[in-house]
Design goal:
- It is built from three helices and twelve strands, in the order αββαβββββαβββββ.
- It is an alpha+beta fold.
- It has a six-stranded mixed sheet, with helices on both faces.
């Protein structure tokens, strides 16, 4: 019987290695994990997300980053959400954004389990993250998870007719803006 043993990497080893890769990876705290499942619908929703948030945040002291801005979660784990909002000064040379307040993940055909379970737990362990928003790509809809004082999440579902309210940064955004130009099968 042959068992495969995974050799642990450090976060710095991962960053040095990832910098020269043509594909994108996250770090599970032990080894790199390929980021998979993106399609043009995912790309357009992600782009619309940034186009909706950036002008609304201008002058607020908060900014949006992603998808190349890392978030340190539990242990040595590094995630690269589709978008995030931070309200503190960032070092432009850093690979990680500190004091992240809101995280957005756009679901890909293969990422649902990781985004809804694994990342939910990881983002929940980050004290500064107050809200985690999962954006559907197969249908128009969001799952908005708001962290409660006891660390648990309160979930709300939104559709294309709803407004996404982000009290942490004083924004309200129509959900429909994230889906402009995106064809969703009915």
């Amino acid at each position: 019987m042959s068992a495969s043993v995974r050799q642990s990497w450090t976060r710095d080893q991962f960053f040095a290695w990832a910098e020269v890769q043509s594909e994108r990876y996250e770090f599970d705290g032990i080894q790199p994990v390929a980021m998979t499942g993106g399609n043009l619908k995912h790309d357009r929703i992600s782009r619309n997300l940034h186009l909706s948030l950036q002008p609304r945040l201008r002058g607020s002291g908060c900014d949006t980053f992603g998808p190349n801005a890392g978030v340190a979660t539990v242990g040595q784990v590094v995630r690269y959400p589709d978008a995030l909002i931070a309200c503190s000064k960032v070092d432009g040379e850093s690979r990680l954004v500190a004091n992240v307040v809101i995280v957005f993940e756009v679901l890909s055909p293969t990422s649902g389990g990781i985004d809804r379970i694994v990342k939910l737990r990881e983002y929940g362990a980050v004290d500064s993250i107050r809200r985690y928003i999962i954006i559907e790509s197969a249908t128009v809809g969001l799952t908005v998870l708001e962290k409660q004082e006891n660390g648990s999440w309160n979930a709300t579902s939104l559709t294309g007719e709803d407004m996404l309210v982000l009290p942490e940064v004083g924004l309200t955004v129509p959900v429909s803006e994230f889906y402009e130009g995106v064809e969703i099968a009915s």
